[in-house]
Design a protein that fits this description.
Elements (H helix, E strand, L loop, with lengths): L7 E5 L8 E5 L6 E5 L6 H9 L3 E4 L6 H10 L4 E5 L5 H9 L4 E3 L7 H7 L2
Parallel strand pairs: 3-4, 3-5, 5-6
Antiparallel strand pairs: 1-2, 2-4
């Protein structure tokens, strides 16, 4: 029986952020997916994405768009953003200007690892 890596959660500090973010990873160097919005998907969904080879970064409840943009400055490429709702125009324009792929995801989480690889 193959062994599946167990994702672990850790705090991830963003300068001037209201609270630490949560980083979920199964270890090693991994591309990062920022999941932005509420409600955050279930732990089982986030763990599955981490086991699929992604580092998953989620914001605290009251994080601002400025904190999202600050987080993007700290994370090495490749990074993608999965919005749970349509992003504010200034945020989507900032991501487009930085050539950071993003999309709205509500229920099709199993497609995210493939999308991540296609966008690379």
């Amino acid at each position: 029986m193959p062994h599946l890596a167990t994702p672990r959660k850790a705090e991830f500090s963003i300068p001037n952020a209201s609270a630490p973010w949560t980083l979920r990873s199964a270890g090693g160097a991994r591309p990062t997916l920022i999941v932005w919005g509420k409600p955050v998907p279930a732990d089982s969904v986030l763990d599955r994405l981490a086991r699929a080879g992604l580092a998953i970064l989620t914001a605290p409840e009251h994080a601002t768009s400025a904190e999202l943009l600050a987080a993007l400055e700290m994370i090495p490429a490749p990074v993608r953003v999965a919005f749970l709702e349509t992003p504010a125009t200034d945020v989507s324009k900032s991501l487009d200007a930085k050539a950071i792929p993003w999309r709205c995801v509500t229920s099709e989480w199993d497609e995210v690892p493939r999308w991540f690889q296609e966008a690379t």
